[in-house]
């Protein structure tokens, strides 16, 4: 067979494979927009799209879904048995969200806002050092750098003292983590495993990552938020320094839901259950709803989390997110909030860590400004915090970004807290953040060079996988 004939045959095979993959995309992609984009690309340009589809196009992981929903049903029943007071009056407007999540607001939380990496990890390391029974650790990213080695040493010390230590990290998020880091922890008595929705290794599976950040110490002290274990989260890696992020420390009955979220993921990976220790009784005044969302949920729970929070606002809605790529439901909710007279502000970065996402975010920001939403770019460094402030009485801190990955592809966790004192703390923090930001005008888009504006529109075509 001559070379031209061989190339022709190869092209025909690629097109056949592309058509088969397009059929799979039409049947399985979660959104019509995503299905159309994949089907068009796979049919017309299989040379370009076929390999990316193997990495990004798979939308089913039935084994995990079945187990996850069985666990969620049992945990939901346990949660509702624990809840004998109904929905508290201050939380009525979020009742639909609690119902969707199969969870409820816990009364009596004691909350502490942790601003930036230094405060966050000093609090976490202090808590770990005092652990007596059990430590649960889950992060999307572990790095073998100064902070990562400090975490490693802290966990080894507690394991040596007889404390049970359980660690989960995401297999893709922590792809650069060397084997010796994990092996050292295992040799020291730490139970540590990578998370993946497929029990068998699948290098083609880049979607459905576990983006949660959870620390629970002795069942009574919990942490969640936006920070991972790496020097960049302490602002030690230019050019994104200083790194702006937020975490939450909590104690009280809601910590049991952090343990439950960790336990579901741990059981999937290992087939075993970690200890479930009783949380501390009510110690504070906050009501807290833990929202563990992900692509295994029957509903698009993360997108609905944002939508419900936005729809609850009557006077003020302030959001911070590193990636502003809202879907239609969230964008419509933001537009309606503006029409109700709500002060809607969104804080986003002025520097990119992912250029395609940054370009798409810039175009979405322009559309948002046209709708009356005020957009601000944080100037000192990269802003990675994921915070929502609703009026004067509710605030959320978690791992959820305002993009399709968080809405539909990643496992996330957040805490929605109803408490005026905590909301006031968040307000003070955000006032300081906005004071270091510049409000974006329509000129950012209008005065950009034509090729840059074209790049923004092209980047937005990839919204379903950003």
Briefly summarize what is shown.
The chain is an alpha/beta fold and 466 residues long. The chain has helices at residues 3-28, 32-44, 46-56, 62-82, 95-101, 116-129, 146-160, 179-187, 255-270, 301-312, 328-339, 355-370, 404-409, 420-435, 443-446, 450-460, and strands at 106-115, 134-139, 164-170, 191-195, 214-217, 221-225, 243-244, 246-251, 286-293, 316-320, 343-349, 374-378, 382-383, 387-390, 394-398, 412-418, 437-439. Helix 1 (3-28) packs antiparallel against helix 2 (32-44) and helix 4 runs antiparallel to helix 9.
What keywords describe this structure?
466 residues, 17 strands, alpha/beta, globular, Endonuclease, Chain A, 45% helix
Describe this structure in words.
With 466 residues, this protein is α/β, with parallel strands linked by helices. The chain folds into 3 domains: 54 residues, no CATH class; 208 residues, Endonuclease, Chain A (2-Layer Sandwich); 165 residues, Endonuclease, Chain A (2-Layer Sandwich). The protein contains 16 helices and 17 strands. It has a 15-stranded mixed β-sheet with strand order 4-3-2-5-6-8-1-9-16-15-14-10-11-12-17, with helices on both faces. The chain has a two-stranded parallel sheet with strand order 7-13. Helix 8 links the parallel strand 3 and strand 4. Helix 1 packs across helix 3 and helix 5 runs antiparallel to helix 10. The protein is globular and about 75 Å long. The relative contact order is 0.12. The mean pLDDT is 90.
């Amino acid at each position: 067979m001559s070379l031209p004939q061989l190339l022709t045959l190869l092209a025909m095979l690629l097109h056949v494979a592309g058509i088969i993959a397009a059929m799979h995309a039409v049947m399985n992609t979660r959104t019509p927009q995503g299905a159309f984009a994949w089907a068009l690309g796979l049919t017309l340009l299989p040379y370009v799209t076929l390999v990316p589809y193997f990495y990004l196009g798979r939308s089913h992981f039935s084994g995990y879904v079945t187990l996850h929903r069985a666990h969620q049903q049992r945990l939901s029943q346990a949660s509702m048995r624990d809840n004998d007071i109904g929905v508290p009056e201050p939380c009525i407007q979020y009742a639909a969200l609690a119902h969707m999540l199969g969870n409820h607001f816990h009364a009596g939380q004691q909350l502490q806002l942790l601003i930036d990496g230094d405060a966050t990890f000093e609090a976490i390391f202090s808590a770990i050092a005092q652990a007596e029974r059990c430590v649960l650790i889950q992060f999307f990213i572990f790095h073998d750098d100064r902070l990562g080695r400090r975490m490693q040493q802290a966990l080894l010390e507690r394991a040596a003292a007889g404390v049970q230590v359980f660690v989960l990290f995401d297999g893709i998020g922590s792809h650069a983590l060397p084997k010796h880091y994990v092996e050292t922890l295992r040799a020291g008595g730490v139970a540590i495993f990578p998370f993946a929705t497929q029990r068998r290794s699948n290098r083609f599976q880049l979607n459905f990552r576990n983006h949660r950040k959870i620390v629970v110490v002795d069942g009574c002290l919990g942490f969640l938020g936006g920070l991972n274990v790496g020097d960049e989260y302490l602002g030690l890696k230019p050019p994104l320094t200083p790194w702006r992020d937020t975490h939450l420390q909590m104690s009280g009955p809601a910590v049991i839901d952090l343990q439950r979220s960790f336990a579901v993921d741990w059981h999937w990976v290992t087939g075993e259950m970690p200890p479930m220790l009783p949380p501390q009784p009510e110690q504070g005044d906050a009501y807290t709803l833990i929202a563990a969302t992900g692509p295994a949920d029957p509903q698009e729970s993360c997108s609905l989390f944002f939508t419900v929070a936005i729809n609850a606002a009557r006077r003020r809605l302030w959001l911070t997110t590193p990636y502003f790529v809202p879907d239609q439901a969230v964008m419509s909710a933001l537009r309606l909030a503006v029409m109700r007279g709500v002060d809607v502000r969104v804080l986003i970065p002025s520097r990119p860590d992912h250029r395609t996402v940054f370009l798409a975010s810039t175009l979405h920001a322009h559309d948002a400004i046209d709708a009356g939403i005020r957009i601000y770019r944080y100037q000192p460094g990269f802003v990675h915090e994921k915070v929502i402030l609703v009026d004067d009485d509710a605030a959320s801190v978690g791992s959820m970004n305002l993009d399709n990955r968080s809405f539909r592809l990643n496992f996330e966790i957040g805490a929605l807290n109803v408490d005026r004192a905590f909301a006031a703390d968040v307000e003070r923090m955000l006032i300081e953040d906005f004071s270091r930001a510049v409000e974006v005008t329509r000129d950012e888009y209008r005065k950009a060079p034509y090729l840059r504006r074209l790049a923004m529109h092209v980047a937005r075509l990839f919204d379903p996988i950003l």
